[in-house]
Every structure is written in C-alpha cells, then in structure tokens.
Design goal:
The protein is an all-alpha fold and 330 residues long. 66% of the residues lie in helices and 2% in strands. It has a two-stranded antiparallel ribbon with strand order 1-2. Strands 3-4 form a two-stranded antiparallel sheet. Helix 2 packs antiparallel against helix 5, helix 3 packs antiparallel against helix 4 and helix 6 packs antiparallel against helix 9. The longest helix has 30 residues. The N and C termini lie far apart (53 Å). 35% of the residues are buried.
Length: 330
C-alpha cells in the first residue's frame, strides 16, 4: 500500500517557493508580532481590556460584541480577531519553509514554536479577562508576546543564512558583552511591565487591581536600566570600532543606538506630559523595536555561512549565495 502523504508533503511536491518568499514570510511574522503588541497596548490605553466581559465568547450569550458594548467591545474583539491573522501568517511561513527544497527542519521548528506560543498566549489572554485584568497576568501576557517576537526575529534571521556551525566573527569577550547588553535590555523590558502594572493606565475605566508598588519608584528603576542599556550599547559600539569588527555587527549596534535614543526621548515626553495615550502607544512600539535591535546585535556576532541554493533554483551555475544583511529594525 502506498504511503499516505500529509498535506505539507503534498504542498512540498506541488510547489517550490523561492528563498526570497520564505524570507518575506518570516519577516511578515515579525511584523505581525509587533502589531499584536501595539494593538494589545491600544486595548489597554483605550480602557477596552474588559470590552468583552468573558472568554472565549465576548459575552455569555454572544461570540461577537453587541451594540450595547460600544467602541470598547469592538476594540477588544478586534484584537482577538488579529490572533487569527497572526496564525494565518505563521501558517503561511510554515508551509513555505516546509515546501522549500532543500528542507530546513530548523525553520519549520521555529515556525511551529511561534504557533504554540500564540496558542498559549491566547489562553493567557483569556485568563486576563476572566481575572478582571489581574496585573500579573497582564504582564505575563505581554512577556509571552515578547517571547513570540523573539522567536520570530530568530526565524527571520535564520531564513537569511546557512546551516553551518556558528562561527564567531568577533572575539569572545566582545560577544559576551553583546549578551550582557541583551540581558540588560530584557530586564529593562521586564521592569517596563512593572511600570505598566503600577501606572495609571489600568486597561478599564472600572476599578482594577494594581501591583502594590510605588509607581514613581518603579519608573525611576526603569529609567536606571535605560541608562545601563545606553552605556552598554555605546561601550559595545566603541569596542567594535576599536577591534575593527566586520560591518554587520557594527551596523546592528548603530541601529540599536538609534532605537534606544529615540525610545528615551519618547519616554521622557510621556513622563513629563502626564502619560498621554498616543505617546504611551508609541513607547510600546519603541520597546518592540529596541528588543528587535538588541536581538540583531547578538545574532550579528556570529556567522553560519551562506544560504545554499540548488542549481535548478538559480538563474546561473550552482553556487553558495550569501544573503544580504537584514535591514535595520525600525
């Protein structure tokens, strides 16, 4: 009896997406991961966190919002619908990566990792509603979204490089400094969730429990880590210039410097003008761009060889095709 092929194998036999298409699909997952963070922030800033009173339905009697729920119900439900769009984009990438020849299992695994993170975060989002916007669950919801963004960026980067064993392009101490910088940026993001959990934008006009910490003190701690990240970024930039590092890591650090400085300006503007919703939303967007830029710094510190194309997939003789350096985040 002939072996039954699964749908992905059938697609792989019937079509052959280009390497460029796979890269663009991977980049689309990064874009959607950013959008889902920003729209989640819009839900909170518009006080629509409980626009749908329950989960997975919007109300106990309706899957969709009713007219009586107003704009808040539409905003919350719209954010839920974006999860389906995100899943569709991730699914497109998984199919493209699976159909691509030669098959790269690392890419399909990263695609499936994104899918399961989305599924887990959808449940956490539901728990957020069912617990009345518990600030700790809200923070976990955001951090899982950041985890999704992390995997998406790694997937995008891996789609542009080969599968050789990683080779450092800078000395080990320099790469270690890049990892310290990434760790400090992660702590900065974590403290940012505490600022959210203690600040005035609770996500709903009704009384919502907040993290029992002094908001101004937590904000000052957040600012302290901004200075640490800025200091480490500048130190790494000068170090790379001193050791005459390759262009790729130097460009990645330059991009991070720009993102961090712009994010710092936005942060001070939102603080001194009383946290206007639009500026806070820009700050959330900036946080995703800073995290992408920090990840690019670490990824640029090693090389995994060129992306190899099969002879029949090229317009000329078979050769190793080295991908172009990914564009600057933001």
């Amino acid at each position: 009896m002939p072996k039954t092929l699964n749908p992905l194998e059938l697609i792989a036999r019937s079509c052959q997406p280009s390497a460029r298409f796979v890269r663009r699909a991977a980049l689309a997952t990064v874009v959607m991961a950013v959008i889902i963070v920003v729209t989640g922030g819009a839900v909170r800033l518009s006080q629509s966190g409980l626009g749908c009173s329950t989960w997975p339905r919007c109300t106990p009697d309706s899957l969709t919002p009713t007219a009586a729920m107003g704009i808040n119900g539409l905003i919350e439900f719209g954010n839920r619908l974006l999860t389906y769009v995100l899943c569709a984009v991730i699914g497109l990438f998984i199919i493209a990566a699976r159909a691509r020849s030669p098959r790269r299992r690392s890419l399909t695994r990263l695609g499936w990792a994104q899918f399961w993170i989305v599924m887990g975060n959808a449940v956490v989002g539901g728990v957020t509603v069912l617990t009345g916007l518990n600030p700790y669950i809200v923070a976990a919801h955001f951090l899982l979204s950041t985890g999704l963004l992390t995997v998406a960026v790694v997937t995008w980067w891996r789609s542009r490089e080969g599968d050789d064993a990683p080779r450092d392009v800078v000395a080990r101490p320099v790469r270690q400094l890049a990892w310290v910088l990434l760790g400090a940026t992660a702590v900065l993001t974590l403290v940012g969730t505490l600022v959210t959990g203690t600040g005035p934008h609770a996500g709903d006009a009704r009384k919502v429990n907040r993290i029992p910490l002094n908001w101004q003190e937590v904000t000052q701690l957040h600012v302290d880590f901004v200075y640490i990240v800025v200091g480490l970024t500048v130190a790494l930039w000068f170090t790379l210039r001193a050791v005459k590092a390759p262009a790729a890591p130097r460009r990645a650090v330059r991009d991070l410097v720009v993102c961090v400085l712009l994010q710092g300006v936005i942060g001070y503007v939102q603080y001194f003008f009383g946290l206007p919703e639009l500026v806070v939303g820009l700050h959330m967007l900036g946080s995703t761009l800073v995290w992408i830029a920090a990840l690019r710094v670490v990824l640029a510190m090693r090389d995994r060889g060129p992306l190899v194309e099969l002879p029949e997939q090229q317009s000329g003789p078979a050769e190793a095709v080295r991908p172009a350096e990914p564009a600057a985040a933001g």
